[in-house]
Amino acid sequence: MRTERNLTRLDRVFARLDREPERPAHIDVPRMSRHRVVLFTATLAFYLAIVWAIVITSWLVRLDWQVMFFRPYQQWPEIHAFLDYYVVLGQRGPTAVMVAAWLGWRSWRQHTLRPLLTLGASLLLLNITVGAAKLGMGRLGPHYATTIGSSEMGLGGDIFPSGHTANAVVTWGILAYLASTPRARRWLSALSAVTSLGVGLTTVYLGTHWLSDVLLGWAAGLLILLALPWCEPLIAKAEIAIFDQRDRWRARRGRTVPAPALPVAPVVLKPRTVPAEEPAPEREPAASVRSPRAPIHLAPGPHTARSERTPVTPAGSRRPPHSDRVPRGTAPAARPVAGG
Contact at 8 Å (CB) between 50 and 56? Predict the structure, then answer.
């Protein structure tokens, strides 16, 4: 009696993973719509307004100093240990590894490099824009402030805007940007917004950033997410170039493998004329050389070569009979004896 093993839930999961889907023919790529352009413009204006408010030492700078003197990490010390771990969700290295692992698995399943290339493009834009703003404005953090009430701009710092906040917005927001369904996009957008908001407020709680640093970090990360549709044509070209290079590499590696040598007989299409001074190449006979037949096997009479003989047809031979030859198997007629 044959018994079948009951599949567990883990077996069904792996059986599902073994059925790799085909590469999606139509990928929903976000476009730079009018609504997105309006959001990008408004976010850019908000970004510039914060920078201007810090440069002129406005009320926002006074608010930064008030929050710093409040010292939230001393007001609620019981959550300090938890927030020390939670702020890791905004560090570029750990978050990039986690998100890249998920998007790499998704790229392998869908046979497309777009998720990984989109993540790479967003991180590249993040490093260029946020890094340039940090070095250009040179603001010192709360722990290194020198003058109470000043903006601490241009003193060689690298705190403005908040890199943790901007990285949290971009890294977790890219999951919502690459979502395949509207429902998943809404849920992932809300999740990334809450995560990045928590990371930004955590840096204020720990005293590593001003409140205005976090506001500018949110704006910087959102600008990158809103500008990604402009990068989609370059991402598509990069994907095509990578796949073409892979195909060329496979073809080149396939040609370098030596094929087994097989004896190939030369095919002569036309007779070749050999010059007089060059000896003619010896040709291998098609068959083994036969020894000449013994005269005993020849029929009596003059012998003709094989090429001169006429083939025998069903109607009989067309060669005129020889007068002095007799058919085989019959005794020759007795010759008359002279003088008898």
Answer: no
